[in-house]
Amino acid sequence: MKTRTLLLLAVACGLAILVAGSIKIFLIADEKTPPQLAIGESAKVGDMKVTVDSVERRNGQTLVSVELVGVDDPDGATSWVLGVLGSQLKPLDPPADAGRRCGATDKSSPTQCVLAFPTDETKGILRYVRAGQTARWDISATSG
User: Which of 15, 20, 69, 105 is the most buried (most CB within 10 A)?
Assistant: First the structure.
């Protein structure tokens, strides 16, 4: 192949990469991120209505009171994650005086329970995932 042909192919490849990158940036800029909810607000996640009632920080833990309504599920209240400072935390057993641990949900009555996370970090995003959907609560604005 001649040098001129190779140069033209290189320019064509560069233009193709530039066009593809521009299209990707356009698509990313148009994506809508799910809104972050405030404490006290509810969200429908899959077949479950979820409300984060309150957040309290004590003894190095973040305690989150939640209510779930909608379906009989032995693990319905276990899909929680708290994102803080580069860490994704799973809930632990809450202290005995805080309330009941989240687990099974009941279709006939609201399930009220407490999530305990091993951090007292004041900034974070609490996520609940169910049926391929996610709801997010900003727990940064709370004090306790």
Answer: 105
Instruction: Match domain 36-138 to its CATH number in 2.60.40.1240, 2.170.130.30, 3.40.30.10, 1.10.3720.10.
Output: 2.60.40.1240
85: helix, strand or coil? coil
Residues facing residue 56 across a β-bridge: 63
Q: Write out the two tokens for 54.
A: 């309150």
Distance from C-alpha of 60 to C-alpha of 19, rounded to nearest angstrom: 51
Note whether 120 and 140 are within 8 A (CB). Answer: no
pLDDT in tens, the chain (144 residues): 789 899 999 999 999 999 998 888 877 776 666 678 999 999 999 889 999 999 999 899 999 999 999 889 998 888 899 999 888 999 988 888 888 888 889 888 899 999 999 998 888 999 999 988 999 999 886 544
Q: Which residue has the tokens 């391929």?
A: 132
Domain ranges of the chain: 1-31, 36-138
